User: What shape does this take?
Amino acid sequence: MYPAELAGCLRIAKITTIAKHSQFRNARCQVLRNGHSYRLVGTGVAIENTVRRYAVSSGKETVAMTLRFAALATILGALLSPVAETWAASARAISTIDLSKPFATRSPWQFIATQGEDVEGLSGEEAPGPVSLCITNDNGQSCRPDADDILTPQDGKDVFSEPHVLGNVALVHPSDTTTLLLVEIGSLSAMNGDRRVATQLFGYDRGRDVFTQVYAHVTRKNNNQEIRYIAKGVLRGSIISAEPTSDAPFGFWIIVNRSVASGVYKQVLRYRSATTYGDGNRLAVIDSEMPGIQQRLGLWRPGQPLPLPQSGCANPHMLDGALWC
Assistant: This one.
């Protein structure tokens, strides 16, 4: 969670994408590379928040925040209230799921995703507005755990850090006795059409009456990357990801994560694919690697019926260690 002042800074940055006031037209919330300073900048806006963290005897961190207002801070204060009201009115719920019944929660938990009005994309075209994700038991007054920051890289926020696309949101069942919340999100598209995408899974801890993130992974999409939740079959409940290697022969890193006793997902398999980049195989990488995945996990062996792709290929065959159609 962000300090209150920083949260306000970030919220203003979202608001200004649709604000009509020229003073806020190009405002952005910058996170400096040291990870501790945040600045709202833009035409007619000059307000800076500096966050300093220091350890106290208890070992906990305390946040000390200083605000420095430039001459135009008066304009900021005067315009902030109506702009905030404009943003609140324009944001709309795009997905709402009652979590209390499927998870038998002790308090009224729900998932709410809202989206603001369309914005100007990175190449000047109209793009989907910012998406906000909230898992809450107080009707959105607080959101926990934080599901919005998954797209942010370790070295700080960039133009692909904010969710703008909501993918699949569903209740999934890794086993007959387990329910998880699956959430897929994506960033703004780059000029080449690429975007950052993420998959998260959340489980419920009844003893503490909280939801916790049990799996999270981020990738991109332009080079046949994929993150796939397996809903049925011998790999039920597993999550498989495929991402390009960085050296020749150019293939893919195949990673399988499965739920362990604690409910958290752990990596159980990682190998370099038999599938190569640009080989002409029309199957998705994960489908072409399914025999290799299952064989390495002791779930399939040569001579048994081949694992069938999700759709569109009733009679696949093996070629050079990969499944082809």
The chain has four helices and 19 strands. The two ends are 47 Å apart (CA to CA). Confidence is low (pLDDT under 50) at residues 1-8, 10-28, 30-88. The first strand starts at residue 28 and ends at 31.
